[in-house]
Design brief:
heterodimer, A: alpha/beta, 3-stranded antiparallel β-sheet, B: about 280 residues, mainly alpha, ABC transporter involved in vitamin B12 uptake, BtuC, 13 helices, globular
């Protein structure tokens, strides 16, 4: 297992508040990691900082064997795109911009081939000529995933990819991500508000609450107090994010502080162990 | 019918009309292209604000006895960067800040003109444009500026699209979004100043906004919008100019009304296609 993304003592301030506080972890090549936590726990801020949208106040983000600009990023959906006239191909092609001449009005053959292959892989080709704004939510996410995939060979970072999708389409999207991870060896780092889906999908869980409260295998996460709190307060209603949870987070935060400090240090080690186990099993 | 063609022949034989055509077609092309990005990024107000700042700058140039465009171009460029900054920082609400800036510049411009030359035809031609206002020097400068705008736009076509569609993704994959934002405001400033003499302070911003909106009614792809808005922009300009001559109407206003008609027709076509 080789490390791909290494984060050391990362602190990020957003709107004059510390949203991410002294977070360290390592994501290995081929991993599938889910960042979970309550609303406002710094999940999105962490990811935005990883892809270079918010500069860190302290700490380091180190990429091993790939450039930061080669991260495939799937942002949360924005309002602008809702009525944007652009064909699916045009949208996917923007993912290839990093692969060639920027200051040139034409794409190269290689860029076009990359886009075509990626669209084929994600089943986007049938609506390649359609307008992006006419697609369903699930199709749009698939197109944006294709764009992200064009931009990377190794690492996909997704910010709440399923937040606007219905359950069936969500399932389909997770299926695609699973395939990319297993068959193509693409490392996935995903922010998710749905703890159950995250646990079902991911090999590694990062639980954020300003600090990193947990970093380790998904299996072990089941046995933590954090897991019981997350599912205890919203287990029956996976989509409710009401503010009554905030109280629990604050408690969890202080309760788990000591545990997480101990845990973070050994996380990378455990992490590796877990993967070796996983490989032996398969 | 033949009488009409004769009239057109006379029209195009005038040197000032030829100049207006050359400058107008080039400015229409630039405005149509930039308008797409401005409209889609919710920056439409910047074009309007810049033209008012441009008016203030022209009035100032007249008082100081300097070449109008030599003063207006740098002033409007600075204003464009300032508006972009206001929009991003959000110290004040971006649109409110732009409204304050533009109306203040307009008011100061009116005061300067009134104090020095009185409310005369000069002011009127600044406000509503004039095909007579373009000197040969203006035309040469306009051609240079327009060609620069068109070339820069063509070479940055893809990154500009990427930044417009999804700034966060563009930045994450290494596109320097801030640079392209600056470029967009720079090009807009140049286009507004160049087109201002012809269209008038009050009527230049429709030239930026209308073609993009019109094209978006029917086109499904970005490239389609780009081509369609360039074509409609030039078509509306030329037919507006001709109509204004044939019926002795003010040129700028006629061009805007033709643009409006075009927009309505395309809207209807778009609605029909959906049903």
């Amino acid at each position: 297992m080789t490390p791909l993304l290494e984060v050391r003592g990362l602190t990020v301030r957003y709107e004059r508040q510390t949203a991410v506080d002294d977070v360290s972890f390592i994501i290995n090549d081929g991993d599938y990691a889910a960042v979970v936590g309550e609303n406002g726990s710094g999940k999105s801020t962490l990811v935005k900082s990883l892809v270079g949208l918010i500069p860190p106040a302290a700490g380091e983000i180190i990429m091993h064997g790939t450039e930061k600009s080669e991260i495939g990023y799937l942002p949360q959906s924005t309002i602008v795109q809702k009525d944007f006239p652009a064909s699916v191909t045009e949208v996917v092609m923007t993912g290839c911009l990093g692969r060639g001449q920027r200051f040139w009005p034409f794409y190269t053959k290689e860029q076009k081939r990359t886009a075509a292959d990626t669209m084929e892989l994600l089943g986007v080709t049938p609506f390649a000529k359609k307008s992006f704004r006419e697609l369903s939510g699930g199709q749009q996410q698939r197109v944006l995933l294709a764009r992200a995939l064009c931009a990377t060979k190794k690492l996909l970072i997704l910010d709440e990819p399923a937040s606007v999708l219905d359950p069936v389409v969500t399932h389909e999207l997770y299926g695609i991500l699973h395939r990319l991870n297993e068959e193509r060896g693409i490392t996935v780092l995903m922010v998710s508000h749905d703890i159950h889906c995250a646990l079902e999908q991911a090999k590694t869980i990062l639980h954020m609450g300003q600090n990193l409260l947990y970093c380790g295998s998904a299996e072990e996460y089941h046995h933590t107090e954090l897991y019981r709190r997350m599912t205890g307060s919203c287990g029956d209603m996976p989509h409710s994010h009401t503010h009554h949870n905030v109280h629990h987070v604050a408690q969890a935060h202080s309760d788990m502080q000591a545990h997480s400090d101990a845990h973070s240090h050994t996380a990378a080690q455990e992490h590796t162990d877990h993967h070796t186990d996983g490989e032996a099993a398969t | 019918m033949t009488a009409m063609f004769e009239q057109l022949e006379i029209l195009f034989s005038y040197v000032f009309i030829q100049r207006a055509l050359v400058v107008g077609i080039l400015v229409s092309l630039c405005a149509a292209l930039l308008g797409i990005n401005l409209v889609l990024r919710r920056f439409s107000m910047i074009g309007d604000g810049l033209s008012h700042v441009g008016f203030g700058a022209l009035a100032l140039a007249a008082v100081l006895g300097l070449a109008p465009l030599a003063v207006a171009i740098p002033v409007v460029i600075v204003a464009a960067f300032f508006m972009l900054w206001l929009n991003e920082r959000g110290h004040m609400q971006g649109d409110a800040a732009i409204a304050i800036l533009s109306s203040s510049a307009l008011a100061i411009g009116v005061l300067i003109t009134a104090c020095t030359t009185g409310m005369n035809t000069d002011l009127n031609s600044y406000m509503f444009g004039s095909v007579l206002a373009i000197s040969e020097g203006d035309m040469v400068l306009s051609i240079v500026v327009s060609v620069v705008v068109l070339l820069l736009y063509a070479f940055c076509y893809h990154p500009l699209f990427s930044v417009t569609f999804d700034e966060n993704f563009a930045r994450a994959t290494g596109t320097r979004a801030n640079l392209y934002n600056l470029l967009l405001s720079l090009l807009t400033a140049l286009t507004v100043v160049t087109g201002m003499r012809l269209m008038g302070t009050l009527l230049i911003s429709p030239l930026i906004i209308f073609p993009a909106l019109t094209a978006m009614r029917v086109c499904k792809s970005y490239r389609g919008v780009v081509i369609c808005s360039m074509v409609t922009s030039v078509f509306c300009f030329v037919s507006g100019l001709v109509l204004s001559f044939l019926f002795s109407l003010p040129t700028g206003a006629t061009i805007v009304v033709v643009n409006l008609a075009c927009f309505l027709v395309f809207s209807a076509a778009g609605a029909l296609r959906k049903n």
